[in-house]
Amino acid sequence: MAYFDAASAAPLHPVARQALQASLDEGWADPARLYREGRRARMLLDAAREAAAEAVGCRPDELVFTSSGTQAVHSGIAGALAGRRRIGSHLIVSTVEHSSVLHAADVHEAGGGAVTQVAVDRAGAVGVRAYADALRPDTALACLQSANHEVGTEQPVAEVAAVCREAGVPLLVDAAQSLGWGRVEGDWSLLAASAHKWGGPAGVGVLVVRKGVRFAAQGPVDERESGRAAGFENIPAIVAAAASLRAVRAEAAVEAVRLRELTDRIRARVPALVPDVEVVGDPARRLPGIVTFSCLYVDGETLLHELDREGFSVSSGSSCTSSTLTPSHVLKAMGVLSEGNVRVSLPAGTPEEDVERFLEVLPGAVAGVREKLGAPVPSAVVREDVLVVDALGKRCPIPVIELAKVIGDVPVGATVRVLSDDEAARLDIPAWCEMRGQEYVGEEPQGRGSAYVVRRVS
Amino acid sequence: MAYFDAASAAPLHPVARQALQASLDEGWADPARLYREGRRARMLLDAAREAAAEAVGCRPDELVFTSSGTQAVHSGIAGALAGRRRIGSHLIVSTVEHSSVLHAADVHEAGGGAVTQVAVDRAGAVGVRAYADALRPDTALACLQSANHEVGTEQPVAEVAAVCREAGVPLLVDAAQSLGWGRVEGDWSLLAASAHKWGGPAGVGVLVVRKGVRFAAQGPVDERESGRAAGFENIPAIVAAAASLRAVRAEAAVEAVRLRELTDRIRARVPALVPDVEVVGDPARRLPGIVTFSCLYVDGETLLHELDREGFSVSSGSSCTSSTLTPSHVLKAMGVLSEGNVRVSLPAGTPEEDVERFLEVLPGAVAGVREKLGAPVPSAVVREDVLVVDALGKRCPIPVIELAKVIGDVPVGATVRVLSDDEAARLDIPAWCEMRGQEYVGEEPQGRGSAYVVRRVS
Question: How far is the C-alpha of A21 from the C-alpha of A448, rounded, in Å?
Fold first, then answer.
């Protein structure tokens, strides 16, 4: 069995397990109490805070532990926005932030705040210029991830932090995917992270607020964690989080080289092994362990099941695997193919053999799914002078499969209209055109769904 | 060493430890994922939810796990208030709720909501009539603890739930102190609890929202825990919480009898062993393991240190032990003595010998503290026809000590004025009068602090 979904949750690092078990005996009491058990708990908490601060590169009194990375993001954004309420209520985020950031932005907008979403390029990276252009006199806060959780692309955080600093706007960095690999460079103001992403236990997030950053914690607070994270501290888990962060950092330089070689191998060989694949994300400026690709004419959920049966646990940004039927907002923002999407995120220590076996298994798994889906009879009729494919009521990847089947019947220069009410078609038909060198003319709303118009150019 | 502060945090139950360790291997993955590790995590989470729901006496789909009891209270109150926004924004709480409830009420009030605090009697219990009287047509929510965390007094939850139900107002019960002992009876609507209070791990709270209760989760949410608790689930801790709840419940009936006998012993013998002690809280309607008393002329912090040196870990609601210099809001609301306050809360399994040794050690510890504080020269002068004691700048318990020293010099029927700028004096001087059978005349504001006027009647 091979677990290739470290970007969702990394397996518990052995150091985390040891530290957790050891501190269950010493760290269960209330660290606010003055008696022996309380003092011991306080000492463990203080030591964990110092270790985590050292790893982040901040002062211990700038760092609080929250109950999750999501809580750190939510509290950090709410507190930073409230702290600068007098300056304004404009918030900047990128279009490819983690959903926790986008949810916080939605709440801000619903409460009357303004939000600018900065677009990304096809590799998933924001432009520094675009962040600079988004800054306004009433900008209270800007947010940017250190690296993308779905495609691994690293963001130009230090450069964006510099333009924000110049404008006097604090930058909150969501470092959830990268903190285990190293410090976030640059002059950022706030930082959020999540222990279970680096091999620590669930239930621990980190929120750093640099001295001098205006911050007003929102909602009910108490005396815990400098008034920034209410509720009894989970000290055994905090100790385990800090110990494992230190441990993964000690191994990071060597492991980064090793995993990068493995993901490079996947990047290079998947397109050679599997036809009609698009590897997405920046090939160079990326996290060591993540590689993402999309397979045309494949239903992501079925492919994940096939791979699971073969012993591989991966995730997908395809709409087909979620309950919402909306494809990943990241792939959508990048404008890349979302159907048959697979994210491989290797945990530290992944053996080379597992990757080799994955590369052996993948082509058959994709071919199998394509075969299952492969022979729907397209209901194509010629109406006036264009071919119409009626894919209404059919879910991804069927609309694209039907388009591919009829394109050969369309005279060069003529158009085909694909009728579809599947949300993913909006993303996948243009992506197919780009991959196939055909022209995507546009979308025309229909009574039900839309007509996607494609011109055959070759 | 004896740990007598289970009401702050109970030591980890052996079953919790076993379940936590076992589920570290099985429960670390994302339960939202479809692959093997995710499915295993989901199964553990589902089983834990069923076990917890069975213990609470609710449906599994009414119960979500939060990151702490505080989070459960904060989210529960905010969600219930928002769900009934159209009915009104009036909130009812008792004066002796846990600070997490009162903090949520403060935030509600700061946001323009109305809050009624229902008073308690000298035993710390609310009256059902008082809750009924507080209900208004615009009441959105009422909150009541199942039992008080500082003095152990049980509240008439079922009766209050009935009057709320009659008025169509949901009742949120903070069951943090009692859930390990048994289900909360009555027709309540929402319930919050905290695992580390019953011997589960830190980092797990429980929020129950009965079907049919209008509820609108506030702040950014995600797809986790029915949209009521954002952030990656801490499944190993959740499993340990549910398993230990079941385990403590299995032992509850026998252990309740045993601990009640031990706390009865403390209630009966402390006043006989230590002069000038007031045992507070309801003698009968109370939790099995909690007993609280206050010692006149004693500084709570010093007494806690003495007891800690003797190997006893207890807590105190005296102002002297907190950083705020404000005495416990619970003792204040009950109108009982706060100085030299000691809360003994026995964890399950406390050996009888530990309680006996505590009763041996306590008289000497109190006497030692009194001796250290015993000889301040009261700066008493006769002004006009009354005695004035100038205790300005002196902290509790000095103002009461000085009052006690001069009362013998006051003719029966005459008054003494104690000048004090210590917040605790407002509570402790009337309490001393009640204990000593003297008449508390009232408080007169001064330039600095107040004059507390006492008439000698015996």
Answer: 57
CATH number attached to the domain at A8-248: 3.40.640.10
As a whole number of angstroms, the distance between CA A452 and CA A442 comes to 6
Taking alpha carbons only, the member of B283, B442, B432, B293 closest to residue B358 is B293
pLDDT score, position A299? 85
Cβ <8 Å between A35 and B1: no
* Kind plus residue range of the DSSP H or E element containing A432: helix A425-436
With 50 as the cut, is the pLDDT of residue A375 above it? Answer: no
Task: Kindly report the CATH number that applies to the domain delimited by B380-455.
Answer: 3.30.110.40
**B203:A205 CB<8 A:** no
CATH ID of B9-248, from 2.60.40.1910, 2.40.160.20, 3.10.20.310, 3.40.640.10: 3.40.640.10
Length of chain A: 458
For residue range B181-208, list pLDDT tens digits in order. 999 999 999 999 999 999 999 999 999 9
Nearest to A5 among B33, B71, B107 (CB): B33
Domain positions in chain A are 8-248, 252-373, 380-455
Q: Report the residue from A35, A71, A99 with minimal CB separation from B304.
A: A35
Out of B12, B28, B106, the one facing A28 most closely (by C-beta) is B12
Which CATH superfamily includes the segment(s) A252-373?
A: Aspartate Aminotransferase, domain 1 (3.90.1150.10)
Residue B337 C-alpha, separation from nearest chain A C-alpha, in angstroms: 21
CB contact under 8 A, A231 and B69: yes
The CA distance from A302 to A310, in Å, is 13
Subunit contact B104:A231, Cβ cutoff 8 A: no
B9, B37, B237: residue with CB nearest A313: B37
The shortest CB-CB distance from A35 to any of B203, B219, B308 is to B308
Pairing of strands B205-209, B277-280: unpaired
Q: How far is A261 from chain B (nearest CA, A)?
A: 25
Residues of B labelled as active-site residues: 320
pLDDT tens per residue, range B416-444 = 989 998 888 888 999 999 888 999 989 98
| pLDDT of amino acid B376 | 38
Chosen from A12, A28, A325, A343 to mutate, greatest number of chain B CBs within 10 A = A28
Quick check: B67 and A68 CB within 8 A? yes
What confidence tier does B323 reach under pLDDT thresholds 50, 70, 90? low
Options 3.40.1190.10, 3.90.1150.10, 3.40.50.2000, 3.40.190.10; CATH of B253-373: 3.90.1150.10
Q: How far is B403 from chain A (nearest CA, A)?
A: 30
A5/B321 touch (CB, cutoff 8 Å), yes or no: no
Q: What is the pLDDT of residues B377-405, one digit of tens each?
A: 334 444 445 688 888 888 888 899 999 98
Contact residues, chain A, for B106 at CB < 8 Å: 220
The residues of A annotated with a catalytic role in the active site are: 320
Query: What does the alpha-carbon distance between residue A220 and residue A206 come to, in Å, rounded to a whole number?
Result: 19
Task: Give residue for tokens 């997490």.
Answer: B100
Please report the pLDDT score of residue A323 as a whole number.
Answer: 52
* Strand stretches in B119-245, DSSP E: 139-145, 171-174, 190-194, 205-209
Find, in chain A, the residue whose alpha carbon is nearest to that of B17: A24
Cβ <8 Å between B9 and A3: no
Terminal alpha carbon distance of chain B: 44
Cβ within 8 Å, pair A68-B99: no
- Over residues A415-424, the mean pLDDT reads 89
Length of chain B equals: 458
Q: What is the pLDDT of residues A337-354, one digit of tens each?
A: 888 899 999 999 999 999
What's phi and psi for B108, nearest 5 deg? -60, -45
Which residues in chain A have their CB less than 8 angstroms from residue B308's CB?
Answer: 34-36
Cis bond upstream, residue A397 (ω within 30): yes
The ipTM of this complex is 0.85
